[in-house]
Structures are given as C-alpha cells and as structure tokens.
Amino acid sequence: MFRSQGLRALAATCLVALSAAPLSASTVTFTGDPTTDFAVASTVTSQVIANPNSDPTGTYQGNFGTPSNLTDYNPYTIYTNADSTNFYVGLVGPNIQGNLDFANLYFSTDLPEGSTVGFEANNSRAFIPGVAGYYDYTASSGIVLDDTSNSSQYATEFSVPFSFFTTDPLGLGFTLATTDVQLRLSQTFGYSVAGGSTAYGEGRFGDFSPAATPEPSTLTLAGLAAFACVIPIARRRQQGTLAA
C-alpha cells in the first residue's frame, strides 16, 4: 500500500502526439522535451489521466489499492523505448499541482515476481519494492536523469543501462534479468500509483530487452522501428508494499 497526502486542485488530462521519425540506436540526446525525444515509431506511449472522482474541495487520496490509469494529482504521459544499451523513460505533463517534481519508477527483471527493483529518480536512489531502505547511486552507474520541469510543465527523462538489471552493481539482491525488462509501475508527479494489466495490458509501460522490440502496452504502441530515447524525473517515494 502507498501512502498519500492531501493536496489541492486537479484537472485535465495530458495527451501528446507521437510522430515517427526514428532516432539512431545507441544515441541518447536529452533536449528537455520528451515529446520530441520520444517521437519514434517504436516508442510505447501510455496516459495517466486525472481521476474524475477526485474531491474538488482539494482533499485527494493516493492509490491505496490496485494501481490504475488514474491519478489524484498531475496527469502525465509515459514514454518508453530502448536500444541495445539502455532502457529509456520520458515523463511529461501539465504542472497543475506544484511541488510534486519527482518520479518513482518500478521495474520487473522477472515478470512472475512483479516489480523487483525501483528508482527514486530525483534522489539518485535504487530500492527493492516493499523493503525499507535504499541504495545511492552515482553517475558512474550509467543512470542518467534530465529534469527540465518548470512552473507550467513537468518534464523528466531517465535512462538505465541494461547492465544494471543484468548485474546488480549495487548489490540490492534483486533477480537478475535474463531476457526482458519491464517498466511496471509509476508514482510520478504525485502519490497515486499508475500501472496494472487492466489499464495497460500485459506489457505495462514497456517491455524491452537489448536489441529487441517492445511488447505493446494497451494504451499504444505505434509500430516497429529503430531504438532510441529518453528519461524521467523523480523526488521521493512513499513507503509501502507493492503488488503489481
């Protein structure tokens, strides 16, 4: 279960169009604009939308139960892609509720286990979902964050080398990836948790392996092409157990 805290107003969904100009494999360019950096045909694009049942008086609750495609905070778009070296994530949405510039991202290195390793992207920390504590990482890990959020828009780009998932360089103790790596849950720009096969299909937010094509998410995959792309932001995660 995830804890949440009360916040104010919220509205509007964020929809962003994809174009299909492929980028070069193994080339990462952070422009600060995920909508441009992820304009690649093979990108998996998913929407996290505003909860229509949020209390308009400003008392919002995070997801305490099953993750979904709803947020009680800022709606946003998730982009994922990969090349032979890195798993890329891009996050972008309107800044409706401020002071929520963070992304906590949960990956699976073994699909039957669910989420096996997570990142507090804005804090440069890795953790095991459902286990207290975290592990700091530095630039030498190869993990990259580009956060260009401002008063009107949240925008985060995040990259993790596949070697992190196959070797566990920090000694966290998660199951090492032998095939695909999947972005499974997102707690981003607010405390609601997005995810689940009901909302996004078995591919969740993107299922990649080095030099392979993605498994489509229920909420969009625009074809097959070259690999490339970008990465998200984060601040801190709420402690809790995680099942999805």
SSE layout and pairing:
Layout: H1 34-37, E1 44-50, E2 70-71, E3 76-82, E4 86-94, E5 103-108, E6 117-120, E7 125-127, E8 135-136, E9 144-147, E10 153-161, H2 162-167, E11 181-188, E12 194-195, H3 197-200, E13 207-208
Parallel strand pairs: 1-2
Antiparallel strand pairs: 1-3, 3-4, 4-10, 5-6, 5-11, 6-7, 7-8, 9-10, 11-12, 11-13
N to C succession of SSEs? HEEEEEEEEEEHEEHE
How much of the sequence lies in strands comes to 25-35%
- If helices are DSSP runs of H or I spanning 4 or more residues, what is the number of helices? 3
**What general form does the structure show?**
globular
Overall number of domains = 1
Helix content: under 10%
How far the N terminus sits from the C terminus, by CA atoms, comes to: 11 Å
Q: Main sheet, how many strands, which sense, barrel? A: 7 strands, antiparallel
Total number of β-strand segments? 13
Structural class: mainly beta
What would the average pLDDT be, to the nearest integer? 78
Low-pLDDT stretches are: 1-27, 213-236, 239-243
How large is the radius of gyration?
Answer: 16 Å
Explain what you see.
This protein is mainly beta. The chain has 3 helices and 13 strands. It has one domain. Strands 5, 6, 7, 8, 11, 12 and 13 form a 7-stranded antiparallel beta sheet that branches. A hairpin with an 8-residue loop joins β5 (103-108) and β6 (117-120).
Describe the structure concisely.
The protein is mainly beta and 244 residues long. The protein is built from 3 helices and 13 strands.
Keywords:
3 helices; about 5% helix; disordered N terminus; mainly beta; about 240 residues; disordered C terminus; about 25% strand; 6-stranded mixed sheet
